Amino acid sequence: MTGDPAGLPKLRLSHPSGGRAEVYLHGAHVTSWVPAGGSEALFLSRAATFAQGTAIRGGVPVIFPQFAALGPLPKHGVARTQPWERVDDGDRPGAVRLRLRDSAETHAVWPHAFVAELAVEVGDDWLSIELTIRNTGDAAFEFTAALHTYLRVGDVRRASIEGLHGLRYRAGKEERVDEDRSLIVNGEVDRVYLNTPPDLVVHDPQNARDFLLRARGFADTVVWNPWAAATAALPDMEDDEYLEMICVEAAQVGAPVRLDAGASWTGSQRIRVQPA
After folding, report:
1. I need a surface site. Which of 68, 142, 220, 250 has the fewest CB within 10 A?
2. CATH number for the segment(s) 2-255+263-275
3. pLDDT exceeds cutoff 70 at 15
């Protein structure tokens, strides 16, 4: 385990092939993933803030128990700004399991007993992230969640996403159907695609690579890029960085998960990089 200048502990994962990743205990936040023989696959803002109580801009934030501002809680819930603990024995250098338990701080905004676990594993050309939520209280609760994955692309104006054609999506208060054969981002996009297929492809021609995304347990997919005007209003993102990223997030937003006392839920996303 290492640390950064802000004093936040960080774990380095490595695979014998050369694939590697970095994970902060702060928010159980994956901030870097480099496939074997390749280049950085996750976007992390050069202006990202690393501090207690603050979300990190980029990587893979863990969203729980509320997605965005769709409810009474702070935006994107509490998990991404809480300190998590390592619970595996450290015998696998390419994998880690982290845990977050409810606390007085989480009860202040969400009065439920829970345990969240995040399992992260890196391989030669793939990254796997699995989120499990257990209800440890005596009453049912509901939540929404996401793995808010920021993919790094060479130029988002040249990138495209396949697998969303014909699907319903929400954009603000409107609901529409995607009629494009592939999604090309040429302006601000903030969509929640409902009941999406498990497999999607993101083409990154500038870097001559494709991202193959496979989700399990999550019913929906969020696609987000703030574009120029919204990026300029973000204090933790430089003005031109929207060109370097696209968020394609495994999510459970359209229908909240209801967990009875003692029950658990698991959702995962596995990303593979291959030459275009």
Report:
1. 142
2. 2.70.98.10
3. yes
